[in-house]
Amino acid sequence: xxxxxxxxxxxxxxxxxxxxxxxxxxxxxxxxxxxxxxxxxxxxxxxxxxxxxxxxxxxxxxxxxxxxxxxxxxxxxxxxxxxxxxxxxxxxxxxxxxxxxxxxxxxxxxxxxxxxxxxxxxxxxxxxxxxxxxxxxxxxxxxxxxxxxxxxxxxxxxxxxxxxxxxxxxxxxxxxxxxxxxxxxxxxxxxxxxxxxxxxxxxxxxxxxxxxxxxxxxxxxxxxxxxxxxxxxxxxxxxxxxxxxxxxxxxxxxxxxxxxxxxxxxxxxxxxxxxxxxxxxxxxxxxxxxxxxxxxxxxxxxxxxxxxxxxxxxxxxxxxxxxxxxxxxxxxxxxxxxxxxxxxxxxxxxxxxxxxxxxxxxxxxxxxxxxxxxxxxxxx
Length: 380
What we know:
This is Trichocyst matrix protein. It comes from Paramecium pentaurelia. Residues 76-152, 244-307 form a coiled coil. By secondary structure, the chain is mainly alpha-helical. The chain contains seven helices and two strands. It has helices at 2-25, 28-42, 47-170, 188-206, 212-228, 234-359, 361-373, and strands spanning 177-178, 181-182. It has a two-stranded antiparallel ribbon with strand order 1-2.
């Protein structure tokens, strides 16, 4: 019974070691080491040398892992420093962007307010310009009307002057003289000429705006001259001449009054225009100042916007740089873990082989014998 149990245990142990050999052979290193050990054993290589080779290999793995650990730690520390620096730069840029946006948030409403004020001033200026234009147009109408009035008065004056000249140029010399009295007379033909001249002048004056009253008076004088031409004596001639002189004086006085009224209108216009121009100058000055302020604000906004765009571009570039660097660091960490895992697996393979050599040499020899018997070409 004890013998049977022992055989079972031995069979189980061999089966376990065979499974271990199969697992070792699944890795390139394990298969290479098994092949090397098998060849060395079949060629009579001292067991101590085989052990020393495995121990040296295990030590090399340990040394390589320590070096790799140190290099990885140093690299990751540099990564941490780089990422911290990049994150700080990004934080500074974000802070700068916030500051620039705050400046824009302050400047833009002020600019918009100034633009609104300027538009309001421009509307007020346009209304004032409308008043100026209307006032100027009205003054021009008054000036044109006065000029027309002057021409009409001049016409009436010329009609009266011509009538007076017809009398004075055609007075016949006195037939006799008396002390203190000069007796003169005109011919009926002259009186008829005067009446015709004045009648024509009266007709034209009746069509005018400002001298219609004088036109009627001239018409009366023309009728008087026409009725009295058959007599043409000194008394009637004197009366007609005196009426012409009186009408001429009245005309002169009326024109003086018209000129005074025109002068008053000119002075009132100039005084009013002076006030309007002062207001216009104020509007122009305000608009010019607002335009300058708006331009200054716009320049600052443009400069701030340009700076902000530059900061945003730098944020984008710096973010990409940080992400790239983080990717490099993560990739290096992954590669390190892969190397460590592979190295740990190789060390375990070496350690398993050392354990087998120390405790299961018989099984190893049997395993090699089975491979040789199976015609394994790697062991030839």
